[in-house]
Each structure stands twice: as structure tokens, then as C-alpha cells.
Design goal:
Number of strands: 24
Helix content: 40-55%
Shape: globular
Strand content: 15-25%
């Protein structure tokens, strides 16, 4: 659907008009995707052949293209009628017929079909209404021909006058939405907002101006700014400037962690404060943070099928009288998760459906990467009423995480244990015999797989064939999803995704079995999919404290690096149309804030680290003595940290060492840090964990830190496959891409949190000879490069003493 708010016009298909709805939609909830469409096409072809053979004179796939006017809006509707049977004789009736496939047994009561498939009846009623507009003197009738997809049983349902009224009601829903979008656009045009900062730090003002210029000139911008710079505030100021200028109609701000989303919402609300003494100066910005579906759930069990959840069953019928439209009609209505959950309980409607309905009425959507880049989650955004990526500014914070997250969202793990458990449930439920046979074959195949780093082609073919047989049966029905255990039901529908995964030629992938009875479908590089998604948006801003080398980062998100920008006389700055422009924030207050040394005395590689454990433990003790306060030591893994902690207990018994606990709650993590900084001598933290990348309490409080080796990824089949993809295990550039860049990004992330504001200082010891090698040193952020080389204990002591 497209619309022009200035011209008050809209263009959409008849199908889009009939599916158009605010709030929950009726339906079976069957997740069948393209498979149902393919089987539907097959039945259309068979019925077309039958009608042709009968000599009815029917026309097929008849094009419709007509304009209608409703409440001041001109609406263009397009579509194709499945069959048109001409009138017989003078005064005869022309019959329009739509063919619809269903998985339920037929025949069914007409009232039940109307209740469960209102969009089908709206569609044929719309075609009848449009035909009458173009042929006012003709007699036109319509009917639906339902086909039971598994058996081919047919049921004809003619439409009546009540059905024909659906066309007008569909137009009314559409125009109500268009009016709301028109009001929202006018609100945004007059939006006034507060600056993100009451006063700017050195470098912020010039960086803000450069960022706004880059967005105005380039479609894709990568923005790198250190932790503590105020990146979020500058990003939002630039984004709101784009929104109020009309260069975009909506902002999507996505992050890889919910903590970042909360900060975005808090900053936006502070910037969007309206002066109570002068309310005419500005109007509120409509912001919605999308939380995970599981967080919305108020059912006793998270099982998202209409058949098993009373908050989904018949929700569309309860919506109109629920009063939940207040969440998008009232600008000042609370929209926090607790309020959503309480409202959902009271209305007996899933709170996630409130979010789904309200999104289209908001100017800024804040959420997780998955809502744009994960095939299983992106429909929440991309199916929204009036959502057009080409008119949207997409901001991706913590963008260094995007390539891995996008690949993970396209990866699956299946096990023979789950398959056996589901087989037992299918048998207990009395599922269709052909489905049980197909699932039995799949279960036995999983159980017989050899442990291997990559399936051979013959075995891949066997996997694909077994999955296709299951998928065919799933599409045809024969099982009650509500009767299955929630997690196991997901495994059944997942087979449809797995078949599509095997067919997708754009994915760089690996099919492997790390242990008996386990099969992994791993995406090893999602750059093509990421790039295709990014190119669908009008503007994209990728931001992080550690983007890494510009060329490799651009490749990892499927975009070329921009050509070097040039300025000609009288011409603006230009770059390649689809190139990624890289800009770095100016931070003069960080100059000289870090004092860095490379400790060449030790080798922290896995095979050598145990032999240097005593030296590492002694170095930790030396660092603490020099600091005279709590110090932070970063390790590549828990296992390495625990080994050194044990060594310290034996050789430095008075040193109080605490290792970060395995906590997922950010509040608990922050509380642990606050307590440990006061009570402990040494904090052992793990590189790449949320303690190292999300906790900001260390800035200005930890004066001395040590990094025990680069945090290279684990050596396994996936990394080996990625190396082969980028040139092979003997290719230095492949090793750099797969191991060194992600490993050194974790080091840069951790060290960046030690200096977060003017006046902060940090003494940093990089404890491994590899840090001095050019291939590693070049990947350190500029603040940590060109440190002092230490080769003896005496040099270490002298450097630590001089740092006091």
C-alpha cells in the first residue's frame, strides 16, 4: 500500500484492503507460509482446467483497476478476479468467483466460514462493488469456492447483502487510518524538542553538525563514537531533524540489548518535553518500545495458538468493545509493559496484540534487531499498516553485533530427543498416519547421524527429502496444534522454515552434527540478507563504539565501502549511491587519557597459558599494589579467569579476588559491580560479556586495568567454515576476519568503558606478546596503540611506578 498525504490519495490491492485491520485478526494461526500458497496455486490450476473443459466461457485472472472516493480520499484499488463467468442471455447475471483453500474439513456451516474468514468475503464483495461501478447496468453476483486443501472437497458460498456491505466498512477502516496518519504528519511538522544535552562536551557540537550533514548527503552512514561520548543523544537529535524536515516519515531505532532500548526511550522522552507554560510551541512525539512477545504474555503458559490461548481466541471479536484503542488514540496514555499487561488481562486480549495494533500510529519504534533482520520476527514491523521502509530512517545502535545476530536468527538446532518426544505426542493424539510416518523417518534419520563438521552432499539430500515430506504433511493438516506441548509444537512448524532454509541460495551456510542426535543448520554469513534489507530503507545509520575496520565492517553488512568523497567547485560532497560512509566522532578530551603498555613476557594462547599462569597471577598482584585500589582484569573466558584465581589463592593469599557471576539481570550485574569495587581488590571480568560491554560503573572508578590476551572466538566447525568462505585457513586475511577482528573488538569494548567523561584516566596493561604484533596492534582503537613494550619484570615495575 502507498499513500500521498498531501494529495489525499492511496493505492493498494483489493487483498490489502480486505486484510486491512487495526487490532487482532481472525484466523487459524497455522504457520504454513509459502507452502500453502503453492498448494493453493495447484488447486487454482486444476479448477481452471475443469471450468475450461465444461465450456462455461469463464475468464480467468481478470484484472481490476478502479478508483473510488470515500470521505475526501481518492483510493485506487487493483487486483485479479479468479474466475468471471459471463451472463447467459439478456438480463442474465455475471458471476464473479474467488477460490480459497482451507485446511479444515468441508462442508462447514456458512456462519463459521464468515466468522473465521471475513477477509475472503470482503474480497469478493469488493470485486462485485467495483464491477458494478464500471458496469452500472449489469447484474453482478459473487461467490466463494472453498477447497479443502487435503482432500479437494468443494463448498460454494454465495455472498449476500450483508457481505456486500463489507466493502464500505473496509473503506471506512482505511480512511480512518489515513486521517490518523495525516494528523500525525501535521503533528510532526510542528514538533519542537529539547536538545539531548544541556551543555555540549568538546567535540560534540562539531560531530553533531557533521553527522547531520552526512545523513543529508549519504544514504548509508557508519558512525563510530566511544562509550560515554553521548552517542545516543546525538543520534536522536539528528534523527528528529530528519523527521521534522520531512526527509523521513518514521524512525526505527534498533539495538541488540534491551538496556540500550530503555536508554533511548528515556532520552527521547526528556527531549520531547513540552513546556507547560507554552504548550503551543510543540506537540508530543509518539514513541513505542517493542518488548519481546514472551514479556507481553499473561497466559499461564506461553503457547501462541488461538486454539489454546484464551487471550487470542476470538480476540478480534472482543477488540471493538475493549477500549484498547486508547493506546494509540490518546497521546499521553501510559504504554509501559505493566500497563499493557494489565489492560490485556482486563480485556482478555493478548497484550502483544495491543502493541501490534498501536505501532502504526507511532512516529518512533524502538526495539530489537530481530524485528527487521530475523525472518521469524520481522512481520511485526513489515506488516504494519502504512509502513514503508523507503520512507523510514533506520538507526542500528551497537551495530558491531548486527552480523552475528542476523546469522544467529537464520540458524537452527534440532535434536533426536525433541523428535522422539514429538513423535510420542503425535501418536498419542492420533495424528494422520502419513504425518506420523514422515515424522518417524525424520526422527530415525536424526538419531542415525554421524558426528561430523559438515554433512556430505548425499546426507544433505537425505535431510532435505525427509524435511520436505514432513512439511508437505504439516501443510495438509492432520494434527491439533493446541494438543501439543508448546515447545514441541514449534519443532513441527519449524520444519517449514528448515525447508526454505535449504532452498535459499543466498545464505552462506553449514549443516553439521557436533554430537550424536543433534543437527545444526548454521548460517555462517548473513551479509547478503543484511545488505538487501538495508537497501530497502530510505536512510540507514549504523552506530557503535567499535565498528572495526571500515572495509570489513561494510562487507559484513552487505554494503560496499563508499568511494573517497570529493568536493568540486560548487558541487556537494558525493559518494557511491550504495556505499557506506564512515565517520568518527571527535573526542579531544580522550587525548592522553589512557596510559598503555604491552606485556611481552607472556603468551596467553591456549596451549601456553598454563605455563605462564604464575606470571599472570604475580602481574595482577603488582597491578593492584601500583593502583592502591580495586583493579579490573579482563579474560577471554571464565575458564581462564578461574585458573588464574586459583593460582592467586595459592601464591597471593591476601589478595581479594572476585570473578563476575553468571547473571543475566542487568540490575543484579550493576549491584555486583558496585559492591565489588568497594570490597574487593581485583575484579575478574570476561571479555564479550555484558559485564565488559554494558556496565558503565567502571568509568572514573577503576584507575588500573589489565587485559589477559585477545578474546579470539572458539575454534570449531563454524569458524573453520567461515575461514574457508573468506579464503581458507592458511589465508591471513581469513584469520583476521574470523578471529582477530571479533577478538580485538571485545578488547576495545571493555577498555572503552574505563574513560567515559572528561577527567577520567586509566592505566592499561595488555598482557600478551600478541598485542605488540602488527596484525593485532592495528586492530586496537587509536587510544590504545603505540604503548610501551615491557620485556622484563623490572621494566614492568618501573612502568607501574612511573604511572603513579
Amino acid at each position: 500500500m502507498t499513500f500521498d498525504l498531501d494529495q489525499r490519495t492511496s493505492t493498494l490491492s483489493v487483498g490489502e484492503l480486505c486484510d486491512f485491520a487495526v487490532g487482532p485478526r481472525p484466523g487459524s494461526g497455522l504457520a504454513s507460509g509459502l507452502w500453502r500458497a503453492q498448494l493453493g496455486t495447484l488447486w487454482h490450476q486444476q479448477l481452471r482446467s475443469k471450468a475450461t473443459a465444461e465450456g462455461s466461457g469463464a475468464a480467468f485472472e481478470v484484472t481490476v483497476d478502479a478508483w473510488v472516493v470515500h470521505r475526501g480520499w481518492r483510493i485506487r484499488l487493483t487486483g485479479r478476479i479468479d474466475q468471471v463467468l459471463p451472463a447467459v442471455g439478456a438480463g442474465g447475471t455475471t458471476l464473479l468467483r474467488e477460490i480459497k483453500t482451507v485446511s479444515r474439513p468441508l462442508p462447514e456451516a456458512e456462519a463459521a466460514l464468515r466468522a473465521d474468514f471475513p477477509e475472503y468475503f470482503s474480497q469478493i464483495a469488493t470485486y462485485v462493488a467495483l464491477r458494478r461501478l464500471t458496469e452500472p447496468a449489469a447484474r453482478i453476483a459473487g461467490q466463494l469456492l472453498f477447497v479443502e486443501i487435503g482432500t479437494g472437497t468443494l463448498q460454494v458460498v454465495p455472498i449476500d447483502r450483508t457481505d456486500e456491505d463489507r466493502f464500505t466498512s473496509r473503506l471506512e477502516v482505511l480512511v480512518t487510518f489515513l486521517d490518523a496518519r495525516h494528523r500525525a504528519r501535521e503533528r510532526v511538522r510542528h514538533l519542537r524538542y529539547q536538545p539531548a544535552f544541556s551543555s555540549l562536551r568538546p567535540g560534540q557540537e562539531s560531530t553533531r553538525d557533521e553527522l547531520e550533514q552526512a545523513l543529508a548527503r549519504h544514504r548509508f552512514v557508519a558512525f563510530e563514537a566511544p562509550t560515554g561520548f553521548g552517542k545516543t543523544g546525538l543520534l536522536l537529535e539528528s534523527a528528529l531533524a530528519e523527521l521534522t524536515s520531512g526527509r523521513c516519515e518514521r524512525i526505527l531505532y534498533l539495538t541488540s540489548k534491551s538496556t540500550g532500548q530503555l536508554q533511548v526511550v528515556r532520552t527521547l522522552r526528556a527531549m520531547n518535553a513540552v513546556n507547560p507554560d507554552k504548550p503551543a510551541e510543540g506537540t508530543a512525539l509518539a514513541i513505542w518500545q517493542v518488548r519481546a512477545k514472551t514479556e507481553h504474555c499473561v497466559n499461564t503458559v506461553f503457547h501462541c495458538t488461538r486454539e489454546s490461548c484464551l487471550y487470542l481466541a476470538e480476540a478480534s471479536a472482543r477488540w471493538a468493545s475493549s477500549g484498547l484503542s486508547r493506546f494509540y488514540l490518546l497521546d499521553d496514555h501510559p504504554r509501559d509493559l505493566d500497563t499493557l499487561r494489565q489492560a490485556g488481562r482486563e480485556a482478555q486480549i493478548c497484550p502483544y496484540e495491543i502493541t501490534r495494533a498501536a505501532l502504526a500510529f507511532n512516529d518512533v519504534w524502538v526495539g530489537d534487531y530481530n524485528y527487521v533482520f530475523a525472518p521469524r520476527n520481522r512481520r511485526l514491523f513489515f506488516d504494519q499498516l502504512g509502513f514503508d521502509p523507503a520512507r523510514t530512517l533506520l538507526i542500528l545502535d551497537e551495530a558491531h553485533n548486527l552480523p552475528a545476530r542476523a546469522a544467529d536468527s537464520r540458524s537452527f538446532v534440532v535434536t533426536s530427543d525433541d523428535a522422539h518426544a514429538l513423535l510420542a505426542e503425535l501418536d498419542h493424539q492420533g495424528a494422520k498416519a502419513s504425518l506420523v510416518r514422515a515424522w518417524t523417518a525424520w526422527t530415525y534419520l536424526l538419531a542415525s547421524l554421524p558426528v561430523t563438521d559438515a554433512l556430505d552432499l548425499a546426507l544433505e539430500d537425505d535431510v532435505g527429502e525427509a524435511l520436505r515430506r514432513v512439511a508437505d504433511e504439516v501443510v495438509l493438516g492432520g494434527v491439533d496444534p493446541a494438543g501439543l506441548t508448546p515447545g514441541l509444537a514449534d519443532r513441527l512448524w519449524e520444519t517449514l522454515d528448515l525447508v526454505e532454509w535449504l532452498k535459499d541460495g543466498t545464505l552462506r551456510r553449514l549443516l553439521w552434527s557436533p554430537r550424536p542426535g543433534e543437527l545444526r543448520f548454521t548460517c555462517i554469513d548473513a551479509s547478503a540478507a543484511i545488505g538487501a534489507t538495508l537497501r530497502s530503507f530510505g536512510s540507514v545509520l549504523l552506530a557503535s563504539a567499535t565498528l572495526g575496520p571500515a572495509h570489513e565492517f561494510a562487507e559484513s553488512v552487505g554494503l560496499p565501502v563508499a568511494e573517497p568523497a570529493t568536493v568540486a567547485e560548487g558541487n556537494p560532497l558525493t559518494d557511491t549511491p550504495l556505499g557506506l560512509t564512515h565517520m568518527v566522532a571527535e573526542t579531544p578530551w580522550r587525548e592522553g587519557a589512557y596510559r598503555v603498555a604491552y606485556d611481552l613476557r607472556v603468551d596467553t594462547r591456549f596451549r601456553a597459558r598454563a605455563s605462564h599462569a604464575s606470571t599472570t597471577a604475580a602481574t595482577v598482584a603488582r597491578l593492584h599494589r601500583a593502583a592502591g585500589a580495586c583493579v579490573a582484569v579482563f579474560f577471554p573466558s571464565y575458564r581462564y579467569a578461574e585458573m588464574i584465581e586459583e593460582q592467586i589463592r595459592r601464591s597471593h593469599v591476601t589478595l581479594r579476588v572476585v570473578t563476575q557471576p553468571r547473571l543475566s539481570d542487568l540490575g543484579a550485574q550493576a549491584a555486583w559491580v558496585e559492591e565489588s569495587v568497594v570490597l574487593a581488590d581485583v575484579l575478574f571480568l570476561v571479555l564479550g560479556s555484558s559485564f565488559a560491554e554494558s556496565i558503565d560503573a567502571l568509568g572514573g572508578r577503576i584507575s588500573h586495568a589489565m587485559v589477559v590476551g585477545p578474546a579470539l572466538p572458539e575454534v570449531n566447525a563454524v569458524q573453520a567454515a567461515r575461514q574457508d568462505l573468506f579464503g581458507g585457513s592458511k589465508n591471513p586475511s581469513a584469520f583476521r576476519r574470523v578471529y582477530q577482528i571479533p577478538g580485538m573488538q571485545k578488547v576495545n569494548q571493555a577498555l572503552g568503558r574505563l574513560v567515559r567523561a572528561p577527567g577520567h584516566r586509566a592505566t592499561v596493561l595488555l598482557h600478551c606478546a600478541r598485542f605488540a604484533e602488527i596484525s593485532y596492534a592495528s586492530l586496537l582503537a587509536p587510544d590504545y596503540q603505540f604503548g610501551t613494550h615491557l620485556t622484563t619484570d623490572a621494566e614492568l615495575d618501573a612502568w607501574l611506578t612511573s604511572a603513579v
